[in-house]
């Protein structure tokens, strides 16, 4: 140990640390926002793929390969549109929540007032998943019908297949994300 260095750090050492500039703070916020966007997009895409696969498996269970592929394409197109419509509905719900002015404090309006961007992201994410599930179901049924596939008893369960596929896609995405984060 050097004679010039004190044995313990000074209590004022934190004040002597260099301050981060406003530009550095802004860049850090932008990096965190980009990471959050990537995470939400990855999760929404995993749910979309799962919903499409689940709905297609149920709607075109009695079809040949042409019918399955047509149902898959129809399900993918309509599910992507449903995801966009769901995101717009989530933004509309956020607008409705933030536009209501109530004197009583509730959990919902307190959260929106405290962190409005997180509330907007959450609503848009949830409604986009709902839109993906409904769109995948409708697209798979219409694609199978367009291909001329005979209706099977399992085709009545295409919404359940869509929701099961959505859930499975989200679970796989979650565990994949956790494995990647544990390595870092």
Summarize the model shown.
This protein is mostly helical and 184 residues long. Helix content is 77%, strand content 0%.
Tell me about the largest β-sheet. Answer: none
Shape designation: elongated
Spatial gap, N to C terminus: 35 Å
What is Rg? 24 Å
- Give the helix tally: 6
In what range is the share of β-strand residues? under 5%
Q: What is the β-strand count?
A: 0
Q: What level of helicity do the residues show?
A: over 70%
The average pLDDT value, as a whole number, equals: 81
Uncertain segments = none
Question: Which structural category do the helix and sheet elements fall into?
Answer: mainly alpha
Helix and strand pattern:
HHHHHH
Structural notes for this entry:
This protein has 184 residues and is an all-alpha fold. The protein has a domain at 43-56 and 65-176. Helices cover 77% and strands 0% of the residues. Helix 5 packs across helix 6 (158-183). It is elongated.
Notable features of this structure?
single chain, 184 residues, mainly alpha
Topology:
Layout lengths: L12 H4 L5 H38 L5 H35 L7 H8 L1 H31 L11 H26 L1
């Amino acid at each position: 140990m050097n004679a010039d260095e004190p044995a313990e750090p000074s209590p004022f050492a934190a004040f002597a640390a260099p301050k981060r500039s406003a530009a550095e703070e802004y860049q850090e916020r932008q990096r965190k926002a980009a990471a959050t966007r990537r995470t939400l997009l990855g999760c929404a895409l995993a749910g979309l793929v799962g919903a499409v696969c689940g709905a297609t498996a149920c709607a075109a269970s009695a079809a040949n390969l042409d019918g399955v592929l047509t149902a898959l394409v129809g399900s993918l197109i309509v599910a992507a549109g449903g995801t966009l419509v769901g995101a717009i509905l989530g933004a509309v719900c956020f607008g409705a929540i933030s536009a209501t002015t109530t004197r009583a404090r509730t959990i919902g309006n307190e959260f929106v007032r405290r962190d409005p961007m997180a509330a907007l992201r959450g609503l848009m994410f949830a409604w986009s998943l709902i839109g993906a599930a409904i769109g995948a179901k409708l697209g798979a049924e219409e694609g199978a019908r367009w291909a001329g596939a005979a209706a099977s008893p399992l085709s009545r369960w295409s919404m359940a297949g869509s929701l099961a596929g959505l859930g499975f896609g989200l679970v796989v995405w979650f565990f994949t994300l956790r494995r990647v984060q544990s390595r870092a």
